[in-house]
Amino acid sequence: MSDVQEATNQLLDVNLHENQRSLQVMESGPGSESENLQVTIGATVPTGFEQTAADEVREKLRSSCKISKDRGKIYFDISVESLAQVHCLRSVDNLFVVVQELKDYQFKETKEEVLKDFEELAGKLPWSDPLKVWKINTSFKKKKTKRKKINENSSKEKIDNGQGDKRDKKDVKRELSDNALESHILDYYENPAIKEEISTLVSDDLASCKDETDESSREETDPEVLKFRVTCNRAGEKHCFSSNEAARDFGGAVQDYFKWKADMTNFDVEVLLNIHDNEIVVGIALTEESLHRRNITHFGPTTLRSTLAYGMLRLCAPQPTDIIVDPMCGTGAIPIEGATEWTNCYHIAGDNNPLAVNRTANNISSLLTKNQIKEGKLSWGLPIDAVQWDVCNLPLRTGSVDIIVTDMPFGKRMGSKKRNWNLYPACLREMSRVCRPGTGRAVLLTQDKKCFTKALSGMGHLWRKVHTVWVNIGGLHAAVYLLKRTPQAFVHSSEQDGERTPWC
Amino acid sequence: MKLLTHNLLSSHVRGVGPRGLPLRLQATEVRINNVEFNPDFVARMIPKVEWEVLLEAADHLRLIEVPKGPIQGYEQDETFLRKMHHVLLEVEVLEGTLQCPESGRMFPISRGIPNMLLSSEETET
């Protein structure tokens, strides 16, 4: 047991304190006829989870990451052959290919001069390689969209026998031979048409994400006359221009340069102009729809982003056969992400609300159906179950759970602050009972940090706070707390002096 | 509900003895799923399994070929591991009940989901 404990400790420490010592960037791929194009990819990730995302990139793509000061963005270099795997990353919301990064950009004094500079900039940028990447990415997406249409139709029929569609041969060669990755590629265009604001890619008043049916119904455009738009995100106090103005003037110059057609809603190329203080990054978007709701088909009032769920799970370093429980699962975003990505663990989703449990069960079914179609086999199993229960009185054996991951009621849209005063301590207590002493850990997301901290303060003998990640959930400043269960065994109230009621 | 899940459950009814009493399982509808066999996963799960609970549940579901306990060298014994894989992960109770053996309180299982909610009188306050 102590070996496991040590290993867990080490893993948790490595997760948290790993600095950005750069590993060797991937050496050139296997010699082949196709040119070996190296590009820089930018990814937007949930704020606060940049390091976790960087870890995933290092693990899956063997690339080191640069974490931008512009919060919620990471950058890494890959060979274009690895593009398919990039889309398989679970911790990123959106992807773009970097055209150029300009550090220490000197803005001129007046708005007119600044905007003129932007116009001139357009013609000076190294567009050709990024555009090649965009092209490869687009043809890749079109294949998946067609396949998605086939899948949508076949999923409506009864799934008795596994009728997988035949696998498309991919143009992009893949370096890793891991077949599990292939199954994630369909996730990319999996989402139903839930309109959603892509907060990091959309500037003030421009349209939000597109319905993917637009993508497939669009006819093949003449490659010479592409349609495009420019999206500008600007952050910083010393700028004398607005993002709209920058987008407009930069866009005008791009149009002149390429002779493309500007189209705000039905575009082929989305050019990104990200300005953060004195740093400018020009990029081309590789994703249209945010990836972060990929696993969920049945939404609830407070459904968590899958990318955030992934980040939280990664934070607790799940080990093979860990029992992972979300005792307030809502729509099941976290356990479902867990069952998809950590298939060698066992996941249990629970909630007291029958609506939530039903949604979770439906989401699990959808996932199973999707897996069935993709895998083309009869396998009807994921290591996940759902139970209806009360988090304050869990029907679980003492010390049987390795990891607890949950999104606690903030007290805003769900529950109330007043209820939290009673709920949080009762919750933490019951969770400490079921959590395995010594090696167990919990990752808890909440916006009600004050209540949480107070609830935790009386439980130092059971929980030790190891790390806090500050995140932004729909504009609210929330925190993800990583707790370790101390080695002390849980003592039941009947064995204590009786003081067990929640404090007020 | 899979039998592995059932193995982790215990009665939480107020006043019932030490925590950890297994729940008696009865099923009216069971489905057998075809789940991909992962020997490593099963082997590592074995130490976490409460055997009496598993055997009683398997008995109530009238499952056959259920190993009575871990055998010597089970980690490498594929036959043993496959049997355990089947019992723990492939048998799914869709409709049935879970019963607290001491208080007799019944909890329904419907569409694969057990409802373990207690009324406010029943919970410890």
Short description:
Chain A is of the alpha/beta class and 504 residues long. Chain A has 13 helices and 15 strands.
Average pLDDT score of chain B: 90
Gross morphology of chain A is elongated
Please report the number of helical segments of chain A. 13
Number of domains of chain B: 1
- Provide the CATH architecture of the domain at 306-490 in chain A: 3-Layer(aba) Sandwich
Provide keyphrases for this structure:
heterodimer, A: 504 residues, alpha/beta, Rossmann fold, seven-stranded mixed beta sheet, 15 strands, 34% helix, disordered C terminus, B: 125 residues, alpha+beta, N-terminal domain of TfIIb, four-stranded antiparallel beta sheet, 4 helices, SAM-dependent_MTases_sf (chain A), S-adenosyl-L-methionine (chain A), tRNA (guanine(7)-N2)-methyltransferase activity (chain A), tRNA (guanine(6)-N2)-methyltransferase activity (chain A)
Describe the protein's architecture and organization.
The complex is a heterodimer of chains A (504) and B (125). Chain A has helices at residues 2-17, 50-61, 83-86, 111-124, 128-156, 179-185, 212-217, 243-258, 306-315, 333-341, 354-375, 417-434, 449-457, and strands at residues 38-44, 65-67, 73-79, 94-102, 227-235, 261-262, 269-276, 279-285, 323-326, 346-351, 384-388, 403-407, 441-446, 463-473, 476-485. Mean pLDDT of chain A is 77; it is low at 18-34, 154-221 and 496-504. In chain A, strand 14 (463-473) and strand 15 form a beta hairpin. Chain A has 13 helices and 15 strands. Chain A is an alpha/beta fold and 504 residues long. Chain B has 125 residues and is α+β, with helices and mostly antiparallel strands. Chain B has one domain (3-18, 35-114): N-terminal domain of TfIIb (Single Sheet), CATH 2.20.25.10. Chain B contains 4 helices and 4 strands, in the order αβαααβββ. Chain B is globular, with a radius of gyration of 15 Å. The interface between A and B is large, with 35 and 38 residues.
